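Entry:
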Amino acid sequence: MRDISMAKAIPTLMSLLLFATPIGAAEPATPPPPSRIANLVVYGNDPCPAGKDGEIVVCARQPESERYRIPKELRAKRKQNHPAESWTARARTMDEVSQKVLPDSCSAVGSGGQSGCFRKFQQDARDARNAQKAEEAADKP
């Protein structure tokens, strides 16, 4: 007997399985292409156009008052997921969010953020010095 390695046998078997056609198998018949179907919306008393060359035309009739309006699906109001909030609260929230990108904000994002880091460092040092003085004053009778 001949010794065939598995590395050589697997590609051979795979090619046999892929390209083998069962005996007596017939090619499936391709179905004829479907007729063209057109869906249209007509308004008021406008006639539904006739189809040409086997074309199927399906018409939906809408009242004349809907002719120049935005479709109902697109004009539906969206539900608000958040409770009613005053404009003052919204403006305050926007100010807090945008503060991070404004100058003097100590942020890597936005213009002038680097100048805010030094200012923040100075303010923290000043607050620590004032807290220490207040603590020393409280300890003295």
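The chain has a mean pLDDT of 77.
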